[in-house]
Design goal:
181 residues, alpha+beta, Beta Polymerase, domain 2, two-stranded antiparallel ribbon
């Protein structure tokens, strides 16, 4: 179902682990981790790293990309957070954003929205789906992260892949509570 993501799971994420960079998968692949299996086609893998590791991550990813013929694209806006994308065979398969640790709060910037979490979101949970090992936050924070994203981006709620994710991890009561049913 997600074979095209194999270079991410077999080359890139292990490359980060090898040099001690902590990362956490979020987004659609984290929903799969929550459920314990891939439940839909995922177009890419989204990860976050600590802001203090972002430049090191960029350097490591640059080396991995040069070695494997992948393309690293760095987005550095004048305002807001930076982002790294990796393209393989012309398709964006990995996105990396920084998580900012400020005064015992972990912040994520998504446009003008800033999501805040306790440091517990940085506890790593090892996952393995179809032989692909990776790390995510705990299920509690996968769900909170997903809900906050949906609340901020209500325009995404009716996308088929988002509906699949909603139905996979939110109870009907939660769907109704957040007006997602």
């Amino acid at each position: 179902m997600n074979e095209k993501l194999e270079p991410i799971f077999k080359v890139i994420l292990p490359g980060l682990e090898k040099v001690g960079v902590n990362y956490w998968v979020f987004g659609g692949v984290s929903i799969a981790a929550y459920v314990g299996k891939f439940i839909r086609h995922n177009k890419d893998v989204d990860i976050f790293v600590k802001e203090t590791d972002f430049q090191q991550t960029k350097s490591i990813l640059n080396d991995i990309c040069e070695l494997n013929g992948y393309q690293l694209i760095s987005h550095t806006p004048l305002e807001g957070r930076p982002k790294l994308d990796i393209r393989i065979n012309g398709k964006e398969l990995l996105s990396v954003i920084p998580a900012y640790l400020r005064n015992s709060i972990v912040e994520f910037e998504f446009g003008k929205v800033i999501d805040k979490y306790p440091p517990k979101i940085l506890e790593k949970v090892e996952r393995n789906i179809d032989g692909n090992k990776f790390y995510t936050p705990s299920n509690e924070y996968i769900k909170k992260f997903f809900l906050n994203h949906l609340i901020a981006r209500r325009d995404k709620i009716n996308r088929p892949e988002i509906r699949t994710d909603i139905e996979a991890i939110l109870t009907l009561g939660e769907q109704e509570k957040y007006n997602l049913a």
